[in-house]
Amino acid sequence: MYLLVFCVGLATGLSWFYGWQHFPLFFMGGVVLPMAVALVWWGLALLADKARDHARLAGWHRTARDHREALTLRYRQLVSRNPYGGLELKSWAKELERFRVSTGIDGDAALMARYDEELTLQVQLWAGEEDDTAAGGRFASTDPYEYERWCASQLRKCGWQAEATQASGDQGVDVVASKGALKVALQCKLHNNAVGNKAIQEVHAAAAFVDATHAAVVSPANYTRGARQLATKLDVLLLHHTQLAMLDKLLVAPEKEDARQAG
Predict the structure, then answer these.
(1) Which of 62, 99, 140, 169 is buried deepest, with most CB atoms within 10 A?
(2) Interstrand relation of 175-179 and 182-188 (parallel, antiparallel or unpaired)
(3) Residues 6+ apart with CB under 8 A from 103
(4) Residue with more model confidence, 51 or 48
(5) Cα 179–Cα 185–Cα 190 angle in degrees, nearest 5
(6) pLDDT, tens digit, for every residue of 26-40?
(7) Class of domain 144-260 (CATH, top level)
């Protein structure tokens, strides 16, 4: 309405000065010119918004790269495939929200959804790159005894003397690994669901039986909150099998506590 009044007034004034035969031309110009200006302004604003969103996403992805190891580990622990071959991402979505809150990443819902989608794809690529390394990669079998032997083989690739205990008389120890002064009793849990307290209790008690200096549980799955709390109390290391390649560092590094409570 205001645009129409403006156009009529502008066309009337110009026509009075230049001649009324030019009224249709002045009227159309009064309509087209403001619309053209508005469209250009809208386009520039849209480009500016896209540039701002791109810059914010780039900054958030730099933040994610600083937490690559933790994000990849949590993806492996939380994401599994359902019986139909699809990925179960509900727990991972909650983890992404926790990551964003912890690192101060915030924006509108559409931008957050885009970031979560892009970050999930990036973490999947990181996980795939790890699977191509010499140790700690993908394990596809469902045989728990084969998993124990596989964990032992991964440790041997990293310079450990490691053997599975053959599933009998182990007192709760599945793999015994030694390197220098370190001797680790490991219980290997090929679980899809989170590992609970029982594994921590068993390996802690069994470590003394084999004269181990350390006790650890290794699994492709996550650990329950109670298990993490008990592991902290009993000084049992909780591992994802991708961390076997750095086991000696985790046992002696100051940040061992963070690795123990991964998840």
Answers:
(1) 99
(2) antiparallel
(3) 63, 67
(4) 51
(5) 115
(6) 555 555 566 666 677
(7) alpha beta
